[in-house]
Design brief:
42% helix, eight-stranded parallel beta barrel, TIM Barrel, binds phosphoenolpyruvate, single chain
Length: 250
């Protein structure tokens, strides 16, 4: 039986003041969430604050990116060991904004995945297709290529200690959500692809859906058998809405 997981991706949002009020509100109400693990992934500079605010609660936290390098002369980068210093549990890897706006290749994403696991962080690996790729019938090929990059570098066993987030790029921040069936189809594809190599890992793997999940569509998305929760962008910045989404988890 897979435990549901709902992760907030704050992206490049927040301030010391707004983080405090968001998390104060969220902490007061987290007991209403019965069926999901919950985590928030914040900008690096707020990890100290977030770790202080969430210490001792059931809410986990993480970062939105990681360097593929060990500490050293890499100006502007943040090493995995630094995230561990702030007791991060998760790190988002290969978000489509990193892939598409900052040119991260499948190979670089795989190196980041490996680096996260080497310091015992749980990578949340984002995969998903662009609109033109979906329209060209390429969705499965794209997702397979993104997953193969990880499997080729780290082996299928590495997926046992990871989370996958299927995020169709056309649904991220656009208000256009994949239908529950569209999402379920890709989740089934991902699970069966991995099952062909390692059935036990596929069965246990948490596969989240991300892309304009809101309070008003979370129940039907999370009702699908292969959707194990969500990666939530915009809606994770509103305590009430994020809480409602977390409550929708099975
Ligand atoms: C995301 O940032 O991963 C995301 C899914 O964003 P949104 O929920 O705003 O579409």
């Amino acid at each position: 039986m897979r435990q549901s997981l709902v992760v907030g991706n704050w992206k490049m949002n927040g301030s010391i003041q707004s983080n405090q009020s968001l998390l104060d509100n969220f902490k007061q109400n987290i007991k209403k969430v019965q069926n999901a693990q919950v985590s928030v992934c914040a900008p690096f500079v707020y990890l100290q604050q977030i770790s202080e605010l969430l210490k001792g609660t059931v809410i986990a936290w993480g970062a939105q990116d990681i360097s593929n390098q060990k500490p050293g002369a890499f100006t502007g980068e943040v090493a995995g060991s630094m995230l561990v210093d702030f007791n991060c549990q998760y790190v988002i890897i290969g978000h489509s904004e990193r892939r598409n706006l900052y040119g991260e290749s499948d190979e670089l994403v795989a190196e980041k995945f490996a680096m996260a696991q080497s310091v015992k962080l749980i990578p949340i690996l984002c995969v998903g297709e662009l609109l033109e790729q979906r329209e060209a019938g390429e969705t499965e090929n794209v997702v397979k290529r993104q997953l193969d990059a990880i499997i080729n570098l780290q082996g299928v066993a590495s997926l046992a200690n990871s989370v996958i987030a299927y995020e169709p790029v056309w649904a991220i921040g656009t208000g256009k959500t994949a239908t529950p069936q569209q999402a379920q189809n890709v989740h089934t594809f991902i699970r069966s692809l991995i099952a062909k190599k390692e059935a036990g890992i596929a069965k246990q793997l948490q596969i989240l859906y991300g892309g304009s999940v809101k309070a008003n569509n979370a129940v039907e998305l999370f009702a699908m058998p292969d959707i194990d929760g969500g990666l939530i962008g915009g809606a994770s910045l509103k305590a009430d809405e994020f809480l409602t989404i977390c409550q929708a988890a099975r």
